[in-house]
Amino acid sequence: MGQGAQIEVIDAILYGTKRFFEGVQDLAVFSVRMLAAVFRRPHYWRDIYEQTYFAGVGSLPVVLVSSFFAGQALALQFARQLRETGSESVLGTMMAIAVVRALGPDLTGMVVAARLASGYTAEIGSMKSTDQIDALTAFGTDPVSKLAAPRLIGIVIMLPLLTFIANTVQFLGGALMARFVAHVSLSLYWTQIREEMVFGTVLIGTVKPLTFAFIMAFVACWKGFASSGGTRGVGQATTESVVIASVLILIFDFILTRVIFALLHW
Fold first, then answer.
1. How many CB atoms lie within 10 A of CB 41?
2. Extents of the domains making up the chain
3. Considering only 55-64, 90-99, 211-220, 222-231, which range has the smallest mean pLDDT?
4. Is the preceding omega at residue 105 within 30 degrees of 0, hence cis?
5. Measured distance CA(23)–CA(202) in Å, rounded
């Protein structure tokens, strides 16, 4: 590799690093603006209701279907491995830990992110490309309070509820595998799940979806407001929104698990 090529590689690395930190800074500043807008009047209650309905009821079918089959697949894998050691009777315990602490929040977060992050970015980006956001500003309306804050409130309310529903459906899917594949008593299966609903498990299953909701709203609205270049730019921003939100969900999944485990001395 010649000296000129080496310089180009170094320049590309430095430029990419600069863009990364600029993006982190912009996201942090915009997130603070969104949080401030949530507590600042006026509150657009109709928009909040619409976004809550869109985030919750609109996402319910895909969450139900994906959770049911994911629960069956997980229980089937556990049953296969537990059979080798004759431990099928602890299937309910394994399902409770895996679903509430990991699979439920992660699967719901990823599925909802694919739907809502793309939708939020596309809607706001389209409004920006057609100068509707400038029109709101001209009429004295704060675009962040009008467009971003209701979406943040809606998803923060609904994602934990969707996760709870997803967990329940995954347990139901696992119950089918417990009954017809592992041949485990359903009363034993549900008793083990109930016994594993201790404080730490419930805490992890609650904190994760709340955190994922903030991540989705922050990233999706930020990319929408930052989009440029017309319809092509909106499409690129939409793709980046889903990718960034999905990656951050996985990163924070590990961070939250590690932190909570440390706090609980597990």
1. 6
2. 3-264
3. 222-231
4. no
5. 34
Contacting residues for 266 by C-beta, under 8 A, at least 6 apart: 200
| Structural tokens at position 13 | 């690395």
Distance separating alpha carbons of residues 239 and 30, to the nearest angstrom: 19
Amino acid letter for position 53 = Y
DSSP 73-141: HHHHHHHHHHHHTT-GGGHHHHHHHHIIIIIHHHHHHHHHIIIIIHHHHHHHHHHHHTTHHHHHHHTT-
Angle at which helices 104-112 and 60-84 cross, to 10°: 150
pLDDT digits (tens, 9 = 90+) for 202-222: 999 999 999 999 999 999 999
Look up the pTM and report it.
0.89
Half-sphere exposure of 25 (CA within 13 A, CB side): 6
Place of tokens 């709101």: 136
Instruction: Give residue for tokens 């440029």.
Output: 228
Instruction: Report which DSSP code applies to 41.
Output: S
The number of helix segments (H) and strand segments (E) in the chain equals 12, 0
Cβ–Cβ < 8 Å for 94, 78: yes
> If residue 162 lies in a helix (H) or strand (E), which one and from where to where?
helix 149-180
Neighbours of 266 (CB within 10 A): 9
SS3 142: coil
